[in-house]
């Protein structure tokens, strides 16, 4: 179960979440029983969190030759790798449906053991990554989960990160097979924006040319242009969704220019390395 227990959540909210998880588990028993006849994914959207993965998931799910996983963020290769491959296959379509299958789990890009696991278990799967301005991505993540964050505001949450997301946690996530830590998952606001560092880990297992790397800002400015890149990469016909509105958007007060410029300094070195690797287009 994915429930995060926190002082900010009321008993009623926790009971509601528990009920939801129980109903979900019962609902998907038939899917588990038929997992033998289901396929593994042909492609995976690996991240980033708050970068547009929900929009990619929804857009691709509208394509007649694609069926996305029954849940977004399956997180098998990060959080549930101790479970069987049949558990994983239960999220996808039947082999007889002859549709391309895919999933989107933004935690995959960040988790250090995921690239080796996917390459080993799904060597033919295509990998899609979408990157967003790292400062705005972090701010969006904070606004997404601030209801469970004890920090008073974004600046305080960022200041607390080095204590809540430690090097020891990263080492454990790298070496321990089934390591799970709420802080490492939830409060890694700036850590998740070190794109060069994370991409370097993926490039130990994949050639750069094997990955499709998109920019979040491009997707929302011209979704058809970015979808065309995905269709070509996946070998799909150019059949565009009828609904191209951004998905899972939240509206909140913007970050001040002063705070933005101050926080941007944190990413300077990593951003320069990313630009050298991917080109000038991947700058913010």
Main β-sheet, spatial strand arrangement: 2-3-1-4-5
Low-pLDDT stretches are 1-7
Instruction: Tell me the domain tally.
Output: 2
Specify the CATH architecture of the largest domain: 3-Layer(aba) Sandwich
> Approximately what portion of the residues adopt beta-strand conformation?
5-15%
| Form type | globular
* Gap between N and C termini: 36 Å
Structural class: alpha/beta
Mean pLDDT: 91
The number of distinct β-strands equals 5
What CATH calls the topology of the largest domain is Rossmann fold
Largest sheet: 5 strands, parallel
CATH homologous superfamily annotation of the largest domain: P-loop containing nucleotide triphosphate hydrolases
Q: Give me the Rg, rounded.
A: 19 Å
- The residue fraction in helices comes out at 40-55%
Can you write the helix and strand succession as a string?
HHEHEHEHHEHHHHHEHHHH
CATH class of the largest domain: Alpha Beta
Q: Helix count?
A: 15
Would you kindly provide a written description of the structure presented here, covering whatever features stand out?
The protein has 284 residues and is an alpha/beta fold. The protein is 46% helix and 8% strand. The protein has helices at 11-27, 29-33, 53-61, 85-89, 107-110, 114-121, 134-145, 154-164, 167-175, 182-186, 195-202, 216-221, 223-234, 257-264, 268-278, and strands at 43-47, 66-68, 100-104, 126-131, 211-215. Mean pLDDT is 91; it is low at 1-7.
């Amino acid at each position: 179960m994915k429930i995060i227990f926190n002082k900010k959540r009321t008993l009623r909210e926790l009971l509601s979440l528990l009920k939801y998880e129980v109903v979900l588990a019962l609902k998907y028993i038939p899917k588990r029983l038929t997992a033998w006849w289901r396929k593994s994914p042909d492609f995976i959207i690996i991240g980033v969190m708050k970068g547009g993965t929900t929009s990619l998931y929804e857009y691709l799910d509208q394509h007649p030759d694609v069926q996305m996983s029954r849940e977004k963020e399956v997180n098998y290769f990060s959080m549930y790798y101790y479970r069987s491959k049949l558990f994983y296959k239960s999220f996808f379509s039947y082999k007889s449906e002859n549709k391309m299958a895919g999933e989107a789990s933004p935690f995959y890009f960040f988790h250090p053991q995921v690239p080796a696991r996917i390459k080993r278990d799904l060597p033919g799967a295509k990998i899609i990554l979408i990157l967003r301005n790292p400062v705005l991505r972090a701010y969006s993540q904070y606004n997404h989960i601030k209801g469970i964050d004890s920090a008073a505001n974004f600046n305080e949450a960022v200041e607390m990160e080095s204590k809540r997301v430690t090097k020891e946690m990263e080492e454990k996530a790298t070496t321990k097979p089934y390591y799970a830590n709420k802080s490492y998952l939830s409060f890694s606001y700036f850590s998740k924006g070190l794109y060069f560092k994370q991409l370097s880990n993926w490039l130990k297992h994949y050639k750069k040319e094997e990955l499709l790397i998109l920019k979040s800002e491009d997707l929302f400015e011209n979704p058809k242009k970015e979808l065309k890149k995905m269709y070509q990469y996946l070998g799909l016909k150019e059949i565009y969704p009828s609904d191209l509105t951004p998905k899972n958007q939240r509206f909140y007060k913007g970050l001040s220019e002063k705070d933005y410029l101050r926080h941007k300094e944190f990413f300077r070195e990593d951003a320069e390395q990313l630009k050298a690797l991917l080109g000038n287009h991947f700058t913010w």
